[in-house]
Design brief:
Shape: globular
Strand content: 5-15%
Order of helices and strands: EHEHEEEHEHEHEHEHEHHHHHHHH
Helix content: 40-55%
Oligomer: single chain
Structural class: alpha/beta
């Protein structure tokens, strides 16, 4: 039996905790919001972020982060991407030197434009760092619906350990060493999901969404290759798979936010109405700046950036995208 500390009691961290507890692992959850933790402990349910999923009694909601981290074999970080740096720096003071770090945040840090592993590289041993990502709505994982993800690490043995830790008859895990590709696929698909939602909110049909997803994947791949990712990663679970699930489901916060924007609601108000962190709103700005820095053409990302910044209306952005100069599809 392994001891796992989950840092962040949102929907995804909670869902993964239920997977691990269901296998008999010793799981502790800590969150900076003590009132939220207390409600979870009292009701045995994450009413705020994962309602309707019973939490096994073996999951311990811990008020002191040090207690959660002490003796942990694995530390799973499910804090929002923009808070990952501070969460890791704080936890590093208490976690064992040999603990394996599992990160599930999907995003690019604003200002620094760093991926999550680039942040972690300055703080921990990357041979003990694993990214867990893929097409995986917390709502479905919490209800034990079949789900498949990938574990990525520069150390394939660490990825295989996380694979073994999570594998069940309802949660399948593959391994890869392409950390760059997995992280970029997970982060950038949220931008395209915003666009897919905007398209839906404007009343467009399946043709428009299919085009957005396909051309969106093309520009995600362009940036990924420039930054050293493997092309095949974007055809896999953490690329195409995550893109499909995030662009097509109402479980997706990014798509729901996009729908409201497409209906004419101001982006700030749409974000508030979603009620949880909409990572795509942060990632769009970071990705736009990253693409500019790297000289990579990302027209859909640029259009969505300009929409959420209030520079153009959604209808105007459609005209800009559809009116671009003709190109070869593989260009």
């Amino acid at each position: 039996m392994s001891k796992i500390a989950v840092i962040g009691a949102g929907s995804w961290g909670t869902a993964l905790a239920t997977v691990l507890a269901g296998k008999g692992e010793k799981v502790s959850i800590w969150d900076i919001d003590k009132a939220h933790l207390a409600r979870m402990k009292g009701s045995r349910e994450n009413v705020d972020y994962l309602p309707g999923v019973d939490l096994p009694l073996s999951i311990d909601m811990v008020m002191d982060e040090k207690d959660a981290l002490e003796g942990a074999d694995y530390v799973l970080f499910s804090a929002p991407a923009q808070h990952f740096r501070s969460a890791l720096e704080t936890a590093r003071q208490h976690m064992p030197e040999d603990a394996t770090i599992i990160n599930v945040a999907k995003g690019i840090e604003q200002k620094s434009l760093k991926r999550m592993s680039e942040i972690a590289k300055d703080i921990v041993d990357m041979n003990k760092y694993v990214v867990l990502s893929g097409p995986s709505h917390a709502e479905e994982v919490g209800r034990r619906q079949p789900t498949t993800v990938a574990a990525a690490s520069i150390n394939i043995k660490a990825a295989e350990q996380v694979q073994d830790l999570f594998m069940t008859d309802r949660f399948r895990v593959y391994t890869t060493e392409d950390v760059v590709g997995v992280e970029l696929g997970g982060a950038l698909k949220n931008i395209i999901a915003l666009g897919a939602g905007i398209s839906d909110g404007m009343g467009f049909g399946d043709n428009a969404k299919a085009a957005l997803m396909t051309r969106g994947l093309a520009e995600i791949t362009r940036l990924g290759l420039k930054l050293g990712a493997k092309p095949e990663t974007f055809a896999g679970l953490t690329g195409t798979g995550d893109l499909i699930v995030t662009c097509t489901s109402m479980h997706s916060r990014n798509r729901r936010c996009g729908i409201m924007i497409g209906e004419g609601i101001h982006p700030d108000e749409a974000t508030k109405r979603v009620g949880m962190v909409v990572e795509g709103m942060f990632t769009t700005e970071a990705a736009y700046e990253l693409a500019s820095r790297e000289g990579v053409d990302m027209p859909i990302t640029e259009a969505i950036y300009r929409i959420i910044k209030g520079e153009v209306a959604a209808a105007e952005a459609v005209g800009i995208l559809m009116g671009r100069d003709k190109k070869h599809e593989q260009a």
